[in-house]
Design goal:
Largest sheet: 2 strands, antiparallel
Structural class: alpha+beta
Number of helices: 3
Length: about 70
């Protein structure tokens, strides 16, 4: 969810049928719990900085967690 007036991205996670707000990690990015490697830079998203959004995604896709996720999908 995007709260435009507050200039804030809110990421929810479904835990046992209840939606809970996910906090950004220490790096400031949201890290998907369902799809390892799917990272979102909320600041870049709010200011429409596509280059930073893609760079953040590339960092996530280059993690060990994402590589292990891909192996499980095979």
């Amino acid at each position: 969810m995007i709260a435009l007036r507050q200039k804030r991205v809110i990421w929810f996670v479904n835990r046992s049928g209840r939606f809970e707000e996910l906090e950004p990690q220490l790096d400031g990015f949201y890290h998907s719990e369902t799809f390892p490697g799917l990272w979102l830079n909320p600041v870049a998203f709010i200011v429409l900085d596509g280059k930073s959004l893609l760079n953040t995604l590339r960092i996530g896709l280059n993690t060990t967690e994402h590589a292990e996720f891909l192996k499980r999908l095979q």
